[in-house]
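User: Good morning. I'm curious how NAP would be positioned relative to this chain. Could you predict the structure with it bound?
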Amino acid sequence: MSENVENVIIIGSGPAGYTAAIYTGRANLNPLMFEGYMAGGQLMLTTDVENYPGFPEGIMGPDFMMKLKEQAERFGTRVQTRDVTAVDFSQRPFKIEVENETYFANSVIISTGATAKLIGLESELRLMGHGVSACATCDGAFFRNKEVCIVGGGDSAMEEANFLTRFANKVYVIHRRDKLRASKIMQDRTMANPKIAFIWNSEIEEILGDKKVSAIRLKNTVNGETTEMPIDGVFVAIGHRPNTDLFKDYLETDEVGYLKVEGASSKTQIPGIFAAGDVHDPVYRQAITAAGSGCRAAIDAERYLESLGH
Ligand code: NAP
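Assistant: Good morning! Here's the predicted structure, ligand included:
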């Protein structure tokens, strides 16, 4: 059986997974990666990445992910564009199910990232793709010369509000408080944009429209008053949820679901299982920090395998 046991299987891609692949590849560990059907992660839904060191002109998110993948493959990573469907970390080697196939590995790096959260309204799901979107970069172009709103007060909401002004005539930022969570530079840029207006202390109570979005009902979070406002599109940018459902029977998470690791390492509580990127990082969640943690996970995995004598 040992012939079929991988040194390291990387589950999930994005900056963390691809960096782990580059490092484990260069360490001659012959990594196997299941990059998933949503390969590349959140940067596939982004336009310009302006804050990744080494790209003074910026780089488009999807181009960046293609380059990381190429770099990982250059060092021997075998990349499969499939989703892992189940794991069994109670036995060694660890067992990974991919659809109907079973793989075994002496170590596993988890870099499954996080997924956009939704507000949680029935109308939001019903009208998803019909005026409701969780991805401005994917759907913004459908709203040329229209009026749209975006929910959220973080960097994502600011970035997407600015992006949407390339198409829409007017973009309303709807935020549940009267202070933004976004970084100062993003706040300043958004407030200086004449096409953007802020609606403070407000939540969307209902999205109205039969076949497509026509209006929203807003509720004031301070005095409870409701108002209706015509709108063509609703973009949701209220943060993310870590993709850890596959692992919850085996690995500890915090109350939100982020994997727990030991100190500044990538070590989960099971020796040989490592976490990298947004799946374990509720704080920084940047491409550069994800890439850094992918490097850490690769080095941790390499040392772990060495300690086993592999
Ligand atoms: P975030 O920082 O967690 O912000 C989420 C926003 O959505 C908050 O303003 C929050 O309101 C609001 N919110 C959450 N749940 C809500 C709900 N159910 N209804 C209404 N509003 C809700 O998430 P993010 O903006 O996606 O950013 C995540 C991380 O990525 C951050 O570290 C950010 O700096 C980083 N990021 C950086 C860039 C960049 O530098 N270019 C771009 C995008 C993201 P409260 O403020 O009231 O909690």
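The radius of gyration is 21 Å. The chain is about 25% helix and 25% strand.
Let me know if you'd like a different ligand tried.
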